[in-house]
Amino acid sequence: MRYRGRFAPSPTGPLHAGSLVAALASWLDARAHGGDWLVRIEDVDRPRCVPGADLHILAQLAACGLRPDEDPWWQSRREESHERALQRLVAAGLAYPCGCSRKDIEEALRAQGQERPRHGELVYPGTCRAGLHGKPARAWRFRVPPGVVRWTDRRLGAQAQDVAVEVGDFVLKRADGLFAYQLAVVVDDADQGITHVVRGEDLADNTPRQLLLQQALRLPRPAYLHTPLVRGANGEKLSKQNGAAALELREPAAMLEQAGRVLGLRVPASAGVGEWLAQAVDAWRATIPA
Questions:
Q1: According to the annotation, is 42 in a ligand binding site?
Q2: Per the annotation, does 224 bind a ligand?
Q3: Is 9 annotated as a binding residue?
Q4: 240 in a known ligand binding site
Q5: Which parts of the sequence belong to the Glutamyl/glutaminyl-tRNA synthetase class Ib catalytic domain (predicted)?
Q6: Residue 178, SS3?
Q7: Do 170 and 164 contact (CB within 8 A), yes or no?
Q8: pLDDT tens, residue by residue, 104-162
Q9: Annotation-wise, does 250 bind a ligand?
Q10: Where are the beta strands (DSSP E) in the chain?
Q11: CA atoms within 13 A of residue 63's CA, in its CB half-sphere
Q12: How many other C-beta atoms lie within 10 A of the C-beta of residue 280?
């Protein structure tokens, strides 16, 4: 099976140093395997998207020599596919309507003595699993089965998560009618034929939810590799939310060299982007397990 990888940025602003690391890693892995590298604009969360950011991101990638092998996809144009997947889950009894607001969830957890935030999220207590109890439906949730989900990350090694305990039944379609990231990414990866997912390690704990959805929808499971993060002076992940500066691309080869160092690649900056990328592919192939 031919390797197919992807970089899937959210157009909430321009690329920064952290997102370049993820883009470069996914491109290098595809080239090291002699495969295809795709770009998918993950604009499913439309209220957070910045007009024009998608085209700016594509221009930034091109300036760094990172050009997709096929035309980019926009996730917001794929709602029909996402809806079909949701209806398959509903028909199988694996998705149900939920009438809970965030306040409802917080109060239910307090009543159980379980005020346990998880990275800002609350573990869903299963209030609507058996019915809406007279409340109007707000969202759709996935009925998480009991048991630990296990997988092996190509960089992080053996991983495990009890999704039912640590996350609970998670949202597939939000109260505002938009599809949640978890469902959209699984459907789109399958429809694009993605065989390998390379992304930042902050997304590693999303993987077991996606594995459950792949299994429920009988979709192929890609191989996963989660890359090191670029962190700010406060130790937190560099992100648009904490003020990460847009990439300064007057010297793209130098920016690539910095990103390569985060990935453990010792490829010195060169006069040209193409020359640096060619050396980096060889370094990646020698450093990263297939």
A1: yes
A2: no
A3: yes
A4: yes
A5: 4-245
A6: coil
A7: no
A8: 888 888 887 776 555 567 899 999 999 988 888 999 999 999 999 999 999 999 999 99
A9: no
A10: 4-7, 36-41, 73-74, 95-98, 117-118, 121-122, 139-142, 149-153, 157-161, 171-173, 196-200, 223-227
A11: 16
A12: 25
